[in-house]
């Protein structure tokens, strides 16, 4: 398993690790807001949740999780860079789509 783990500095992923936990907690709260807004506001209430900053937390949480998995299991620096680029492009595209909705 040693060659699967990216060997960076000991604190290289600390900020990402903390942000993953913070955004996860925020997303748990959002689930309750989502259900409440669907009950009270219908589709219009849900659209306010989807197009707001909550969508950005969701996108961040998802792609930061992908990055953590990539760091752990992709040993080639070139492939890691390609995957990071794909993550950035998809993340930006999702944020743009969420704002346009």
From TrEMBL:
GO terms for cellular component: membrane. The chain crosses the membrane at residues 15-37, 49-69, 81-99. InterPro entries: SQR/QFR_C/D (IPR034804). Keywords: Membrane, Transmembrane, Transmembrane helix. It comes from the Bacteria. The keyword Plastid does not apply. This is Succinate dehydrogenase / fumarate reductase membrane anchor subunit. It comes from Seleniivibrio woodruffii.
């Amino acid at each position: 398993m040693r060659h699967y783990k990216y060997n960076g500095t000991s604190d290289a992923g600390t900020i990402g690790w903390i942000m993953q936990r913070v955004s996860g907690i925020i997303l748990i709260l959002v689930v309750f807001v989502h259900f409440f807004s669907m009950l009270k506001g219908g589709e219009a209430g849900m659209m306010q949740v989807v197009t707001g900053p909550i969508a950005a937390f969701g996108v961040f949480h998802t792609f930061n999780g992908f990055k953590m998995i990539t760091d752990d299991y992709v040993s080639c620096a070139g492939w890691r860079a390609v995957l990071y680029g794909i993550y950035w492009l998809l993340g930006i595209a999702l944020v743009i789509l969420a704002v346009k909705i």
